[in-house]
Amino acid sequence: CETCSEEEAKYRCPRCMKYSCSLLCVKKHKLSLSCNGVRDKTAFVSINEFTDLNLLSDYRFLEDVGRTADAAARHPTVHGPTTKKHLYCLRNKARKCDIDLRTLPVGFTKRRENSTTFNSVEKKFYWHLKLLFPHCNAEYTLKRVPDDKTLADILKPYIDPVESDPVVCQRLKIYAVSPQSDVQILMKIENRKQNSVRYNELDASRSLLDNLKGKVIIEYPTFFVVLKTLKNDMVVLGQDASEPAENSDSESSSLSSMEEGEIRDSS
């Protein structure tokens, strides 16, 4: 058992392939690794390991995708004038703030999750925000984050040694004990080809709105909080000598690849 290291393993997690000996250890491993125990139907399988079972799984996956897309297209809220008007206003307000906000059709996971709103009285956005801490395999979702709040203040409840929640801080200990100068906040650039993933580095001292200006956002922002000394394959735009500090790839190819990933996720 990879959890208690005492008993003989009886079970293997379909998601992360960890061995467990009992229901208790299964629950512990899910909690510690944030694992949902559901097999990843889109996980890469090399051609040498590809079997008839993998082919059957892919076939059933595509059938599920077709059913999900058809059900989403038939959903009554897709054609609802109130929903369309709300999304139009939201995108229009974002455009005035120099933010290219794009929304997905009903049925997509990110469309269902998104709780971003615009307060007309205060004239500011309250964003749905996702924080990813890859070095600790942790993910947190924030709702109603005001756009005038700085990124440093947003991260305080998570990695600040004094102000953060003790439980969360313990889980993100590697971030909490690192100097603030080593913490880097990245945001994936959406309008790039799938095989050319790049990230924009954000300024923690500036507001959320300032950091989102000039960016393409699919539904809501997702921030990757990394440590400069540990990050490996996350290439920051402008820090790669082989390419210029601006994005020249077409937006359509990235959007289509993103939608493909969202379709898989929603199934």
Automatic annotation (TrEMBL):
The keyword Ubl conjugation applies. Keywords: Isopeptide bond, Metal-binding, Phosphoprotein, Ribosome biogenesis, Ubl conjugation, Zinc, Zinc-finger. InterPro entries: BCD1 (IPR051639), BCD1_alpha/beta (IPR057721), Znf_HIT (IPR007529). GO terms for biological process: box C/D snoRNP assembly; maturation of LSU-rRNA from tricistronic rRNA transcript (SSU-rRNA, 5.8S rRNA, LSU-rRNA); snoRNA localization. Residues 241-267 are annotated as: Disordered. It holds the Pfam family BCD1. One of its GO terms (cellular component) is nucleus. Signal peptide: none annotated. Residues 242-258 have a biased composition (Low complexity). PANTHER family: BOX C_D SNORNA PROTEIN 1, BOX C_D SNORNA PROTEIN 1-RELATED. Required for box C/D snoRNAs accumulation involved in snoRNA processing, snoRNA transport to the nucleolus and ribosome biogenesis. Interacts with FBL, SNU13, NOP58, NUFIP1, RUVBL1, RUVBL2 and TAF9. Interacts (via HIT-type zinc finger) with the RUVBL1/RUVBL2 complex in the presence of ADP. Belongs to the BCD1 family. This is Box C/D snoRNA protein 1.
